[in-house]
# Entry
Amino acid sequence: MIKNLFKYLSITIIAVTVMLSCNDKQKKNTSNEENPLYLDASSSLEDRIEDLMSRMTLEDKAAQMSQYVGLEHMRKALGDLSEEDLDVNDAQGFYPGFKTTDIAKLTREGKIGSFLHVLTAEEANELQEMAQQSPLKIPLLIGIDAIHGNAYYKGGATVYPTPITQAATFDDSLMVKASQQTAKEMRATGTQWTFTPNIDVLRDPRWGRTGETYGEDPFLVGNMGVAAIKGLQGNDFTGEDKVIACAKHLIAGSQSVNGLNASPTDVSKRTLFEMFLPPYRRAVQEANVFSIMAAHNEVNGMPGHMDEFMMTDLMRNRWGFKGFYVSDWNDISRIAKWHHVARDFKESVQFSIGAGMDMNMHGPYFQDYVVELVNEGKLSEDRVNDAVYKILEAKFRLGLFENPFIDLESVKSEIFTIEHQQTALEQARKGVVLQKNNGFLPLKNVSGKKIFITGPNADNMTTLGDWSSPQPEDNYVTIKEGLDNMAEKYGYATEYYDCGQRSKWITDENIAVAKQKATGSDIIVLVLGENSYRHDWKNKTTGENIDRATLKLSGNQMKLANKLFELNKPVIVVYVSGSPIAEPWLEQRAKAVVNAWEPGAFGGQAVAEILLGEVNPSGKLPLTVPRSVGQLQMIYNHKPTAYIHKYNTEKKVPLHPFGYGLSYSKFKFSEPSVSKTEFDGKDDTITVSVIVKNTSEVDGEEVVQMYIRDNRSSYTRPVKELKGYKRVFVKAGESKTVSIPITAESLAMYDKDFNFVVEPGDFTIMTGNSSADKDLKITTISVNDGFTIEKVK
# Structure
């Protein structure tokens, strides 16, 4: 009996102990729920992420991988598009069967992790407030296409020149500055993630997205991409004045089989590694880009959104990408719909996420399929955890858990500031390229003269370029306005005739009136080109998803020009276009040709300053301008056998070469000298020096360019490749020495196994002010013993 009593007491004591322990644990958990570690800003980043993920269900995690368009965007798209339009439209979107109230409900429930196309600070705050009502209070990551400034913002922001114009500056530091300012304007208006830079290397200028790129050269594209990322992200995008950059589009969409966006690309692995991939490797290894967007297109039969080699084997495992991937628009679903390599959307999700994709842009059903696929054993939860960890890391580093909201009172003081306006103007001044000048520019002794201005791009927002919403009138200067603003200072009069604000609107009647009005003028400024208006899609002639079958001017622009040339008056042609214009006959007859590209908010001021000589042009072409579509593919860094034979009816030289651009100054270059003639090992550097003399009476800036050719190699190499450049300001009559380094990477190539190596042999070093042979002077260096820079893992 006593024995049984002791047994009873022991059981009671154990039971009480367990109960007390459970109560303590319950109190501790309650405390953690009230003050969870992941909301403690003093805790480490890793601990905060792990604590939050330990509280998340699989459904919570899948939600973080899901992105939707903003509610206002959705409302507008519902009015603009039919359900049939959705599958081919990459600019607007809504969700059949879902109301905006349904999306709001999902946000309050924590079932959406990210939004895009949120165009006002008020809506950004509204959405973040909804997310704060969710059980875990995870803030939203809001993305926007701030491609050249936060130009989508509805309240008006600083619109910098488009990327092709920025590339024409050959000024990396100015790119960093503009990107830093863009990040500040984005954060001030409620967005933290921009889908830029586009580091596609341009290979076919028919592609409508030419203006969104940095041109045809991998080195220039890489430099501009790295500069943009560093400006946007800083060192690690921690803080409230930085944003996440997004390198896009992986990969090779600019060399589709027919020049059309999203069409198949069929190129060799060698071309991928030599031409298309270098900017991505540098974006990852030099700039630590934290997001990458896959491409619409397939490459060699593999849709970009399920390309495991690109996303995982190469970018992550070989080159060390630490961020997350996002799909482009509806492209995961298009694995089935367009490419026909999956049964349906669900299997498309399986293939894409399994290959390395981390976030779906955009819409419902995706997260449901993720959960189903994990539960069915077709997708590992580790893959989901890996994706979610990086997305949460972004939100923590950006400080969104501490404060996801915007101070609406301070928005106006943070955007379109004087400092930002000056940077946009400086980029425009340096990006404008003078393509022809027979001595007529700069305009002199214009007092008392009449300048007649016409053309479809003379007095509108085409200067702003693609990826821009209409801006307040006080926020931009057209080319007409730029010339009008300087008329009183120089004593000339201007007359403007609106011949049609779109090239498609120019009629024979308009042309006749323009000719009649120009009769009494002394000088004609003819502003031609293309337009990439996103707000006027039906009249767009270039830009995203508006590709070109010709490089000639659209509509009746040439007819207008021909009639004005009949007056035998001096004509200055100004191009405004993100795409190159190939009109040799037009340029032959013009006194001067100014390629303004898409120069942004203050492009009109910059063009006027250049025409009147207040600014000396210094921009350089970031692409080759062919004479016609018939010359394509025309690139400066072609292989040695590209021009062994001739065309029957066309020259085999371009209208204008890569790197070309005139100045009002005259510069003389010395022969290049080198610090030594033998390169020794991967840590070695040889310095190339050039003396640049300004032989004119006009102070000016020149872009010194260095090209390299591997004289003999195990695989064919381009006839020349840009490997260095530097802007230099030289006063009239003075000389300056410019030094540019040659590193191991400057000489490297991929061997038969795609190791990155430098082979032994001689290398020709070429320096000058364009890629044309006549503009280059040469010397030679050698490598005695080859070596490996990077080996395939």
